Amino acid sequence: MIRSRQEVTVRYAETDMMGVVYHGNYLPWFEIGRTTLLKELGLPYRALEAEGYRLPVLEVAAKYFRPALYDDTLTILTTLSEKPILRIRLDYEVRRGDELLATGHTVHAFIDREGKPVRPPPSVVAVMSKAFAGKL
């Protein structure tokens, strides 16, 4: 299992008139978590794109428990539990301190510049093999 942690501060534009975060704004936070985890692994998204690969979203889910509010400092915890083979699934937790506000996941496919599904590039395979070595 690989985990990443990223903090964000809720901006006023992400809230409604009550100061509560609009539910759709959690998805960009999931993206922040995903790109941060990949960068920390040595796989910056910009480099994947330069190699001709994209990771479109195939599936997204979110479950909300408590509202995030304007100016809250939130922690996005991103987890990659399984070595990606054809698809990559990431799980997310959004927390305010110890309080769990939301959970979610995204599933992505690897595609080439023409939009055709492909296996992960050698750079991803090498990094993931190393990261998951000895892990079941």
Description:
A hairpin with a 6-residue loop joins strand 3 and strand 4. Helices cover about 25% and strands about 35% of the residues. The longest helix has 15 residues. The termini are close together. It has a single domain, classed as Hotdog Thioesterase (Thiol Ester Dehydrase, Chain A), CATH 3.10.129.10. It is built from 3 helices and 5 strands; from the N terminus they run βααββββα.
Features:
single chain; 136 residues; alpha+beta; Thiol Ester Dehydrase, Chain A; 3 helices; 5 strands
Q: What is CATH's topology name?
A: Thiol Ester Dehydrase, Chain A
CATH class: Alpha Beta
In total, the number of domains comes to 1
Average pLDDT, all residues: 94
Largest sheet, strands/sense/barrel: 5 strands, antiparallel
Q: How many separate helices?
A: 3
Query: What would you call the structural class?
Result: alpha+beta
User: What's the alpha carbon Rg, rounded to whole Å?
Assistant: 16 Å
Succession of helices and strands: EHHEEEEH
Instruction: Just name the CATH architecture.
Output: Roll
Total beta-strand segments: 5
Strand content: 25-35%
- The helix content, as a percent range, equals 10-25%
- Name given to the CATH homologous superfamily: Hotdog Thioesterase
Distance between the termini: 9 Å
- Tell me, briefly, the overall form: elongated
Give me the side-by-side strand order of the main sheet: 1-3-4-5-2
Low-confidence stretches: none
